[in-house]
Specification:
Elements: E1 28-34, H1 35-38, E2 50-57, E3 60-65, E4 74-81, E5 87-102, E6 105-121, H2 138-151, E7 154-159, H3 162-165, E8 173-179, E9 183-188, E10 197-204, E11 209-222, E12 231-237, H4 242-256
Antiparallel strand pairs: 1-4, 2-3, 3-6, 4-5, 5-6, 7-10, 8-9, 9-12, 10-11, 11-12
């Protein structure tokens, strides 16, 4: 009688995850808003669909949601800890969504994959951005926002004195270089003597604000790299009206916005 040979099916190797999944630390808060709603105009309802994080990895999360999500939908996910400035923000894609039933209770869950890191603050989340390469920092975004606001601004600055009283003084300002609560820096077409009194008007497009006031030239340096007369000039603000002080604060807040 021939011996029967039983061929066994080779077992599959255990699943290997590139990014280790872990339970979240106590106090982790999560929000997930539709990417289309987050980028839309004001007035759009921006509902947070995330309830809590079940588990977490550097590249994604399993999240309890307030309703069944659609696979393939895009969300902006933010993770944070109350009482700290630690923050992780990323664009995420819904890879799967299920409704679980257990002992008569239902829960909607979704698997989110982080596709692009938007912001990281604090050491707790630093490792979660290792796959993303160079990150845009909040400070870098503020500088970019400030640069855009300054580049679209207009400045008018005239020296006060006899020519100003006669209406013969001309605008010496070419552009606005910097702005603070106490003064500004402009590029001027001619040298202003230290201590020279000036009148200025600063106009901004976004937000649409105009600031008028008087000031004093604190310093003036020739730009030696420019063939045409160009002077970096620092101007300290004199007394601004209450309304102009408020407008200045609006512009400074816009510069610091991320």
């Amino acid at each position: 009688m021939a011996k029967r040979v039983v061929l066994s099916t080779p077992s599959m190797p255990p699943e290997r995850r590139k990014y280790v999944r872990r339970r979240p630390d106590a106090g982790l808060a999560v929000s997930a808003m539709s990417a289309s709603a987050a980028g839309s105009a004001a007035g759009t309802v921006r509902a947070n669909v995330a309830v809590k994080v079940v588990d977490l990895s550097d590249k994604g999360a399993c999240v309890v949601t307030s309703g069944r999500l659609r696979a393939g939908a895009e969300f902006i996910v933010r993770l944070s800890y109350a009482g700290t400035e630690d923050l992780y923000s990323a664009q995420a894609l819904v890879r799967w969504a299920q409704t679980w039933n257990r002992e008569g209770k239902e829960a909607d869950l979704a698997g989110l994959e982080f596709m692009k890191v938007l912001e990281v603050r604090g050491e707790r989340f630093r490792s979660m951005a290792s796959w993303a390469g160079e990150l845009p920092t909040a400070e870098g975004e503020r500088r970019q926002n400030k640069r855009r606001l300054l580049e679209t601004s207009k400045v008018h600055c005239v020296a006060t004195g006899l020519f100003s009283l006669l209406g013969m003084s001309s605008n010496v300002a070419l552009r606005l270089s910097d702005l603070s609560e106490g003064g500004c820096q402009i590029v001027s077409s001619r040298k202003l003597d230290e201590g020279a009194k000036v009148k200025f008007t600063l106009s901004f497009q976004n937000p649409t604000v105009e600031i008028r006031g008087t000031g004093e030239a604190r310093w003036c340096k020739r730009d030696t790299l420019s063939l045409e007369p160009r002077y970096a000039t620092g101007i300290s603000f004199g007394d601004l009206s209450h309304d102009d002080e408020g407008r200045l604060r609006i512009v400074l807040r816009a510069m610091d916005a991320v």
